[in-house]
Amino acid sequence: MDIFQSVLLTIATASTPLLIAAIGELVVERSGVLNLGVEGMMVIGAVCAFAASYLTGNPWIGVLAGILAGAVLSLLFGVLALSFATNQVATGLSLTLLGIGLSGMIGEDLVGRAGERLPNLDIPVLTDIPVIGRLLFGQDPLFYVSIALTAAVMWFLFRTRTGLTLRAIGDNHKSAHALGISVLKYRYLAVMFGGACAGLAGAHLSLVYTPQWVENMTAGRGWIALALVVFASWRPWRVIGGAYLFGAVTIGQLHAQALGFGIPSQLLSSLPYLATIVVLVLISRDRRLTVMNTPASLAQPFVPDR
Amino acid sequence: MQSGNEGTELLKTTGLTKVFGEVKACNGIDLSIAPGEIHALLGENGAGKSTLVKMMFGVLDPSEGEILWKGQPVRIGSPGEARRLGIGMVFQHFSLFEALTAAENIALVLEEKTPIHKIAETARQLSVDYGLPLDPNAMVGDLSVGERQRIEIIRCLLQKPDLIILDEPTSVLTPQEANKMFETLERLKAEGKSILYISHRLDEVKRLCDTATVLRHGKVVRHCVPRDETPSSLANMMVGSDVETVKREGAAPEFGKPLIEIRNLQRPPATPFSIPLRGIDLTVRAGEIIGIAGVAGNGQGEFFEAISGEAVQKSPDVITLNGEKCGTRGISGRRLLGVGFVPEERLGHGAVPSLPLSENMLLSRHQTDRKTMLGAFGYIRNAAVKAASQRVISEMDVRKTAEDPEASALSGGNLQKYLIGRELDRQPSVMIVDQPTWGVDAGAAARIRKALIALARSGSAVLVISQDLDELFEISDSIAVMHDGRLSEPVPIAEATYEKIGLLMGGAEPGHMAFEGVKEEAGA
């Protein structure tokens, strides 16, 4: 039972950063913007979070630094892709390259230093409930943030007028402009929300998952987050499913390696990525579902004519 | 009615000018709209009508000039400000969101925090009041163009505007739907609202509007009272010269053997918002022009893709072109049978906007004209391609500014002439055209129609899909109507009337004409 519980706990820890980053990108894409720089913003978030936590000794300041760093980097994307209407795909890709390079430079002296881990929640009595106590009441704080964030995004997108406006902009920015909606304002805010989420996801990696700084420690998780948004066909609750499925496969292959199955470890390590491809293929078979939820103006630059 | 001083204009513009680059889209426009009048804005495509109303609605900033609203000079910085002043607009290309419901679309422009279900209820009530039945919970993407327009109108009315701007509202309606809309407009006028009505359909302007302003090349040509004019005098003001009417000459010609044969063409919907084709049969013989009428979005686009080979069929027997069963062949395979295609969308579908005309020529004819245009190992013979391009340009009188301009540098009418000419230049024995003169000025449209008639007279089969009924009546030997993915029997032109075709467009079965309107009432 203890093994079972600890497997579930590690799955939750592995899935949380994916969920946070993907839910942020989902809001960005719902507004009609494709920011491929998630990986870059995540890795910058990770290094800044670790650095701030290491310097101040307070991991919570690290979390704030991670959020801020992601948001600032996304603002750079916003200025280029929204104000100057550059190609979003190219701009996003270069943002990732910039993030990886910059984080390596910032973190040069931090490699190998031991950092402070964000403490797990510990509520006497409740956390000690057998089986479910640790799962429900004893995880790291960002786990709860990720679940709350998903619920909040769901409520925002489908229950508020502002969320409706955001979805409308993603569907047709020209119509939105003609109705007098400030397309760029909404998109800037969405992009910065996405950046803050990516930064927070990065902070989770360097403050919870493995409390240290290793160069390029996001290891492709930003790309997985991007794929999860498509996987979820732009619906928040499906992102949870996708993130946890992916987390489960990742952890599963680690355990399989530990148990010494006669399968090369490289093949096992590639399992999560293979799973993503398979799922993406399966998802794209239902065209109605995909088309109904795909923001129709995704990745199209918007230049208001005056 | 307007409170206070009678006789003051509701809206007045003085010297309103908009400059795009070096082009004056609007040049010193003076116009005034009185309270409670329906004011027509007339002009050809590109005369500056849309630019003018976009300035009134705050979408564009005027370069010069002034707008007076209820006697006060105003600067309308955004559509939101226009709405606050009391100006509402129904757009020609709708400003609706397909992935949202009707009620959500309406909620977007209402600023107060009314919950969606209340808005849905108000909208439904208003739609019943005005005889424009509407299901507020329907997804816009699933609705017909006519239904979408109702949403636009209801959305506009819910904002309680004093002035309603309607941009070509009937271009997407059946004649019967249009009549219903005229009743709504008369009622709004009786309530004291002013309407600015943009159209190029002269008979409806004459029937509906109290005053008219005619624009040509961005300038006001005249202010007039449409009731005192004839459609042809209005047309002369718009075009600036007598409009050439295209005539089919002589008695009904003899038709030869069938060149287009379509048997039970079925196609499942390609996207959630597209129409399935449900068993289409059609024969077009040599020398014949068959027109396909229908309200936009009833499967015409899907039909064109199926015949042109953009969407191939499972069995070769479904489509026979020029005597060859070719249902499974792609576009080039069908072109090689001597068939020419011109799709609806000029830029991006008919031509690559950023490529010069000559390269666009090669793109559509690299297979059919392989011998002249390509050398060994697919080497491009630029001289031959350019020569063919020049031939089309002079044959169709394409006006251009450069030697071999990019497709996007041409005006709509000139590019359309080029695209039609590109196919005609091959002397196709079968020609299939979707919306041949959509958004094309009167001169170019006449040129294109003449060329299509001449092609049929030389013994080719011609199939024309169009939303412009006048055009179909002008050139077709028979008219078939597409509705909800089904195609009616072709009606010979001698028996076709606007009423008959209009009823078919609304979905009535031939022989069951009395059923018009019943479906809508039932759906309310």
Query: Which class of the largest domain in chain B in CATH terms?
Result: Alpha Beta
What overall geometry of chain B do the principal axes of the alpha carbons give? globular
- Supply Rg of chain A: 19 Å
Ends apart, CA distance between termini of chain A: 66 Å
DSSP, total strands of chain B: 21
Strand content of chain A: under 5%
Taking the alpha carbons of the first and last residues of chain B, their distance comes to 31 Å
Percent in helix of chain A: over 70%
Domain ABC transporter (chain B): 11-242, 260-509
Protein name (chain B): ABC transporter ATP-binding protein
Family (chain B): Belongs to the ABC transporter superfamily.
Keywords (chain B): ATP-binding, Nucleotide-binding
Outline the structure in words.
The complex is a heterodimer of chains A (306) and B (524). Helix content of chain A is 73%, strand content 0%. Chain A has 13 helices and no strands. Chain A has a domain at 15-219. In chain A, helix 1 (2-30) packs antiparallel against helix 11 (236-258), helix 2 (38-56) packs antiparallel against helix 3 and helix 6 (141-159) crosses helix 7 (161-171). Chain A starts with a helix and ends in a 13-residue tail after the last helix. Chain B is α/β, with parallel strands linked by helices. Chain B has two domains: 11-239, P-loop containing nucleotide triphosphate hydrolases (Rossmann fold); 258-338 and 428-523, 3-Layer(aba) Sandwich (Rossmann fold), CATH 3.40.50.300. Chain B is built from 18 helices and 21 strands. Chain B has helices at 49-56, 79-85, 102-107, 116-129, 145-158, 175-190, 202-208, 231-239, 300-308, 331-335, 357-365, 370-373, 382-395, 412-424, 442-457, 469-475, 498-505, 518-523; strands at residues 11-20, 23-33, 38-42, 64-69, 72-74, 87-90, 163-167, 194-199, 211-216, 219-224, 258-267, 277-285, 289-293, 319-321, 324-325, 339-342, 430-434, 461-465, 478-483, 486-487, 491-492. In chain B, helix 11 (357-365) crosses helix 13 and helix 13 (382-395) crosses helix 14. Chain B is globular. The A-B interface holds A 161, 164-165, 167-168, 171-172, 174-181, 287-288, 291-293, 296, 305-306 and B 58-61, 78-83, 91, 94-100, 104-105, 107-109, 113, 141, 271-273.
